[in-house]
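Cross-check.
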Amino acid sequence: MPTDIGDFISPTYYLSLSGNNLNGEIPKSICNASGRVLDLSNNSFSGIIPQCLTQTSSLKVLDLRRNNLTGSIPDTFLEGCDLHTLALGRNQIQGQFPKSLANCSSLAVLDLGINQVTDAFPCPLKTISTLHVLILRSNKFYGPIGCPKTIGTWPYLQIIDLAHNSFNGEITGTSLRTWQAMMVNDDSYYLGFGWGVGRRGGALINYGDVVTTTSKGLETDLVPLSSFTSIDFSANKFNGTIPKEIGQLASLHVLNLSSNAFTGEIPSSFGNMRNIESLDLSQNHLSGQIPPQFANLNFLSFLNVSYNQLAGRIPTSTQLSTFLNTSFEGNKGLWGPPLTSDAVIVSPPPTLNGSSSNPNSGDEIDWNVISAEIGFTCGFGIAVGSLLFCKRWRKWYYRAMFNILFKIFPRLEHRFGNHRRHVYINQRYWRRLNG
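Predicted model, tokenized:
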């Protein structure tokens, strides 16, 4: 780009040179040509961001995404800054977060994703109540995200992406209660990703913000989509329990808390998120059962709770049964479709070394089979022992057997002859047995 380009272009409401093969540094003279909107995205610009771009009070949209910009963001935003959109994602920007950005009290979209910014969570942003989109993804941010010394709320927040940083500590439910745009289905809360930046010839000139989000493992560029809501805190170091207040975000579409160190149970309040489409809780230390309320999530098209410490039966739901077993793997205590068939429920599958999956259960013994074998053995021993060692029992047994045979087969009695003959035979037979 010519260094004196600003001398040949008069200030305009909308200047876009996006999607070309422009390279080199952004000339300072561009500040003379910029009006309401300056879009230099999707080029190959390098070098630093001209300081004059942060010192103008007329600029509403500054889009420098997808370039090769380096250095730090100039910390020179003026009081009364009227910036609505600052998009610097996918560069190589370093340094700290510019604290003076809090002077832009009308800021709605901030995209610093996929850079190398190193700083604590930007608490000064909490004073900007107009914020709709906050993307800090894939930087070097660290520390907790709570801001106890900062008073402010984000009632219009729709998208917050803090993934792939080093944030830690617990997530408190107090701040979540102020995210009203994620709680109600009311278009008055939504940004719509478009801003009126001026009029020319009676026509309203709009700039449509495009926000790149990650859902279901895929990146998506969102163009004017008024009601989309998303929370992505994945790949950080958050710990403690998942706040139950998340379940109050009834209009939330995407929730990703994977690859952290969350413990405790999955809040049953998650069943209230009836609009949720993608839910990823994988690779944490969650325990307990999957809440039965998950069966009410009819719009859920992606679910991943793998590699936790969950146990119990997977809730019976037509929706949950459509997911692959990889959505539930890595939880030794989970069972039921689609992870296992119902047939496995009757006899739990053996584990290594023949031990049970329940560490407190010990070796499993089928007492029904053993008790039947013991009873048969004892009964047989008593019966045979009585015949061998008790003469009276032997006599009674054989008399009873002869009587039974004669009743069943009457001809046997005639064959043995008259009664005396029968007695003689019996007496001779008993002598032989007792001899």
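The chain has a mean pLDDT of 81. The longest strand covers residues 194-200. Passed to J.P. for a second look.
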